Batch of 2 targets.
Target 1
Amino acid sequence: MRWNRISIKMGASIIFLLLTILLPLGFVIDQVVYGFYVDEEKQEMEKLSSRYASAIAHSNNRMMVQMVTTMADFSQIPLYVTDEEGQIIANAGVPGITVGSSISEEDLVALSGGETITKEYKAGEGGEKFLVSGQAMESENTFMGGVFVLSSVESIDQSIQRIRLMLTLSGVGVFFLALGLTLVLSRKLSDPLVHMERATRHIAKGDLKTRVHVSTRDETGSLAQAINDLAVDLQRYQDSRREFFANVSHELRTPITYLGGYARIVNKGLYESEEEKEKYLAIMQKEATRLKRMIEDLFDLAKMEEGKVDLEMEAIDIKEVLENVVERMQLRAEEKGIDMISTLENNVPFLYGDGMRMEQIFYNLLENALRYTEDGTVTVDLKLECQERVLISIEDTGIGIPAEEQPYIFERFYRVEKSRARKYGGTGLGLAITKELIELQGGSIAVSSQEGKGTRFDIRFPIIPDEKEEQT
Ligand code: ADP
């Protein structure tokens, strides 16, 4: 059995709590029992002494005194009897009391006054200790003496010791029972934590297949589930990262190979005509542009990851931005035989944003729409969704995105299906950059798509408060 700190801490806390309850409780119970026992004993003695006193007083003869003392002797109840002058006339088993001696003046006065005497009595130096209860004997209102019944304090103490022993034993029993239960319980709680700690260490070392068994639905269960989710996320992140690096190096290698190859041809004059040379130079220029774009994307992404993008925020006419981008993409759409339709409302107020970045956002989205659409239409919509926001929708009739892939398309390095990526190119960075830029400017983006039917991206931006006031 391996001890861990949580079991020890929990066990110690519960035991400490238990002791802080048990000890004072034990003390209180002890006091209550002690008081109760002594009271009971006193009452019993009072009852006895008054019974003997009235028996003697009513019979009114010395024979009765003799009978009472014999009975007391027989039942081992120490007592002594005095006459009306306080002189002891009978003694049944009380050490240190002699017949013929007198009780104190004080006691005699109290007795003759009808008071019950309750006191302690010690039979000589180091002798036995007794509780004493004395009652007056009265017949027809005449004081006739007193009866003193005694009870050995030692025997009371012995009884109380027995009770204390029982109390202590049950306390110790409860303590060990609680200790056992606490240890079982704390181990039951801490074992899953230890297990999770080990699993997390495995995950941290790179063993991303590690999973924690989720057996409960409480906080421990949620933690186990969260660890499993984290492992899944890390796995996906690692996969997409690996894939991204493979893609980036592939994408970088292609233009560089072209550039190197054509540069060598031109350099060595391995072309047949000026026209052919121009063609090679044009290819080189196109590839250089692609390379530049890719490096810019990577650079942008790196800056965003560090949170270092400088935005030049100002009031911008979003309609004008969209018109520019649509115009620039029109030629590409025509080349592919795709209809590009834009319905841009006029009453849309200015937005607060970075004009260049806004262009980049819609350029990326339109580029994707055209890239992933073979025929049909690409529509760009701009309208005032409500008094607070504008809505820009970019919709195509292209290949669509499978539902299970949709949650991930905005993730960095994520590309739908590898075969698709090979066919259509791209780096999987476009949407990640787009989403980041939209959010940096206070907007949001959502996708809805049906495989084989088309895709629609809805982008929402808040309106500048002043602009809104102008509107109303
Ligand atoms: P890429 O450079 O690969 O296009 P993006 O981040 O722009 O990277 O897009 C991520 C993935 O989402 C793409 O690989 C593509 O499969 C899918 N995608 C994006 N836009 C569309 C669209 N309009 N229609 C279909 N699929 C799309």
Note: The radius of gyration is 51 Å.
Target 2
Amino acid sequence: MNGNHSNLLRDSYGRTVRYVRMSVTDRCNLRCLYCASPFRQEFIPHDNILRYEEMSRMVAILAGMGVQKLRLTGGEPFARKGCDQFLLMLRQQFPSMDLRLTSNGTLLEPYIPLLRRVGLGAVNLSLDSFDRATFARVTGYDLLPRVLATLDALLSACIRVKINVVALHGVNDTQMPDFIHAVRTMPVDVRFIEFMPMGIGTAWNQKTFWPVDEILAEARRHAHLIPVTERRNEAGPARMYRVEGGKGRLGCITALSCHFCADCNRLRLTSNGHIRACLFDDREYRLRGLLRRSKFRDADIARILRLACARKPIGAELLRQRTEGNAVAQKSMMGIGG
Ligand code: SAM
């Protein structure tokens, strides 16, 4: 399943795609201010969403081209019916795939025994504040107790948890003591993600942007941070730190201040079957039609995947153009999957 050498998905910068983020739905039960569009949301019609069988065919093709890690995301993955059975199906069909999940944690708790059975590499839990009022302000819903119960249940089930915190000036920048407390007391990675300007009408601006230097300075006011050196293939985009005496770790994902495009090894598959080679590149490659017409073979799909990969850009340049007000990265994260 690792793909033979000639079949690997390599791009024109010498990067190899090993990781796919697959959005199972564009629907979400929350309205996070950094993610959802402020305009009326048009959801993708049901018929245009890939069926689970189509998604799993895509995974088979990608696995044959060297993809080793698969993340289900959304929207909210568990907002789509049958997501639990889909995970099981993936595990049965791809026993050695590193399967992961990104979730807001509000619908997850009943499925934790199944997640344990499936053997996920980790669950990334979006949790932007441990303060109930701030959580409700960010997500639009007063559901912090439910997410905290899910976090406890995941840890009790010995499932690895990474907490994603979108760093927001004027929102959660005064709450570092809560995050440090989490790192001290729980075996979790708390990762601050720099707020990225994605989608038309994004709330991103110089006032809401909390840059990594300031995040780390604030963290150092509350704890002594010890840098962690990770093996290259485990590092991912986050720079991680230990906190003296802590069970967990704290880190930052810095798409804007210090990009990690040189090591990017990912492709994205949207829920309607489009390949997006780079988060910030609005060019998408439509595969749904090919998946649905019998005259197209896996080899035809593989050809498009190779094309998308060959054209994969250095996204940081696009992101810079976006921060200067140019019309790039026009799709909201909810539609892409983060
Ligand atoms: N609903 C799930 C969740 O909340 O985790 C999965 C989808 S969400 C789009 C995936 C990730 O994207 C979340 O961790 C979220 O924090 C991140 N995200 C969304 N919009 C973002 C933005 N504008 N800047 C940085 N991170 C963002």
Note: The first strand starts at residue 19 and ends at 23.
